[in-house]
Amino acid sequence: MHKLAQKSQQVALRILSYQAVISVILALLFLVKSNTAALSALIGGLICLVPNGIFVMMAHRHGGAQSAKKIMNAFYLGEAMKIVLTAIMFAVAFISLPIDILPLLVTYIICLVSYFLAGLLPTRQSDK
Q1: Contact 103, 40 (CB under 8 A)
Q2: Burial status of residue 3 (CB atoms within 10 A of its CB: 0-12, 13-18, 19 or more)
Q3: CA–CA separation, 113 vs 93, rounded Å?
Q4: What pLDDT, on a 0 to 100 scale, did the predictor assign at position 127?
Q5: Rounded CA separation 15/111 (Å)
Q6: What angle in degrees, to the nearest 10, is found between the helix axes of 3-30 and 35-59?
Q7: Residues 23/5, Cβ–Cβ less than 8 Å
């Protein structure tokens, strides 16, 4: 793997780990309400994490100026797969799982927003 692609993948994986931690914390908080609410929060986190993880694997495979077309194609394909997989996971959750909608959506939205807010966090010196 190209050094630049490896570095960007490490940053993306760190963001995914933040999202996983947020999901677990919210699930523990929703446990006060009920087991179903806690499980729903975990499902909401997974609906955000799984498609994002697949996107990261696809989009950060290539690096370097000579791979520009491959990088763009991987981003487009990864984003399309992320959208479709997210829709499928929401459909499965709403149709076939005993969920509490509020914890699921709250966790999903917070995890989704955390992806954008992660850029505001200070980076370690080794990431620069």
Answers
A1: yes
A2: exposed
A3: 21
A4: 47
A5: 10
A6: 170
A7: no
| CA dist., res. 122 & res. 110, Å (int) | 19
pLDDT tens, position by position, 41-63: 999 999 999 999 998 888 777 66
Task: Inform me whether the pLDDT recorded for 66 exceeds 50.
Answer: yes
- Angular region, 64: left φ>0, alpha ψ -120 to 50, beta rest: left
**CA dist., res. 82 & res. 62, Å (int):** 18
Asked if 51 and 85 touch (Cβ cutoff 8 Å), the reply is yes
Which of residues 5 and 57 earns the better pLDDT score? 57
1-10, 71-80, 107-116: least confidently modelled range: 1-10
For residue 104, pLDDT over 70 is answered with yes
Burial class of residue 31, CB neighbours in 10 A (0-12, 13-18, 19+): middle
- Summarize the confidence of residues 12-36 as an average pLDDT: 94
Whether the Cβ atoms of residue 63 and residue 3 lie closer than 8 Å to each other: yes
The whole-number pLDDT of residue 10 equals 80
* Cα 108 off chain centre by: 9
